[in-house]
Amino acid sequence: MISNGKQVHGIDVPIVKLIPRHERKVGKKYYQRIEASLRAVGLIDPLIVFPQGDNYEILDGCLRYKILLDMGVETVPCLIGNEREGFTGNRMVNQLSASQEMRMLRKSLEELDEKTIANALGMAGIKHRLNLGLLKKLHEGVSKAFEAGKLNLQCAKELSHVKPERQAEILKLMESCSDYSVTFAKGLVLKTPLAKRAKTNGKKTPWTQADEKKSSLLKRLKEAEQQQDFYSGLYRQYTTNLLKLVIYVRSLLANPQVKEYLQAHHGELVGLFEQVLDSTER
Question: What is the pLDDT of residue 1?
Fold first, then answer.
């Protein structure tokens, strides 16, 4: 077998001779999904290993190894590479998009029933992954663009808030601008006239969410203005009191008898008063 231009050999290895390179920690739900898949359809992707004396170090597949060990499997199909490299095949895999996953599930339903597929994926059901409810709300052209991967799942959900004819208009604008981003779609949806909006059935819509954000922003601005008024009033009061203090101190020191008395009995106070006057005259 040749992978990435390099010769790779396949071999069945006794599980007792396999040594995990590292322990991969995952959540319980994810672990159960992989276990369910292994029990339902078996090991599809062999483990990638590298010879280490009489044993084999697992470069990729540590989680599958642990599950197979718990299942009591004695021999595991493996691929032996010529190099002990850290960048293994599984790390280079791109995750499926929502539309790709939906197409894969539909294709699988042509030969398998929902229960079998759900068991293989470790799920209670797969109807929520088929997005059937969403597809019913979409214009035919929008639905095709979504299934083709041109529009992502979030973008399709945004368009479902408007009527099909408006969806077609938005899709045409997105195509003319070569912009299929969720942000652009949201902006066009928000500009939709009331007559072209889909029925809400009491659910939150982009328009109610926008109004809520606007109200929240106005509330924060009002609170900021109130704080500004409070601190401005506090500052004005401070400057007024400071001015009164300076006038009073200057009048005290301008009186020779008072100044002489203060210097004789409270010399440090005179020095402090003079510092106050100096600071205001700079």
Answer: 46
